[in-house]
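The material for today's practical consists of a large collection of protein records. Getting from the letters to the tokens is the skill we practise here. To make this concrete, we reproduce a full record directly below:
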Amino acid sequence: MSSWTPQRLYDLKPWVFILVGAILGVGMMLWSLWAGLWTVWRGLLCLGGAGLAIVGGATLQMRQDYRAKSKWRRDAPP
């Protein structure tokens, strides 16, 4: 049985992924430029941030595609 998620949290989750991913990615790049070298952990955090942003963007796209093809949307009066 799946748990109920409030609609506002459901809508915000992909945007949080994108925002946190962008902050991690850009933050680690700027920190490495400022420090003058890349460390393994900064590289992994930058990669993880890019991954989070990609997952958030893909989730938004899949939801948009699903809603466009939804029977509720097709059967609704204009």
Observations:
- The chain has a mean pLDDT of 88.
- The chain has one domain: 11-67.
- The CA atoms of residues 44 and 77 lie 49 Å apart.
- Helices lie at 7-35, 40-69, 71-75.
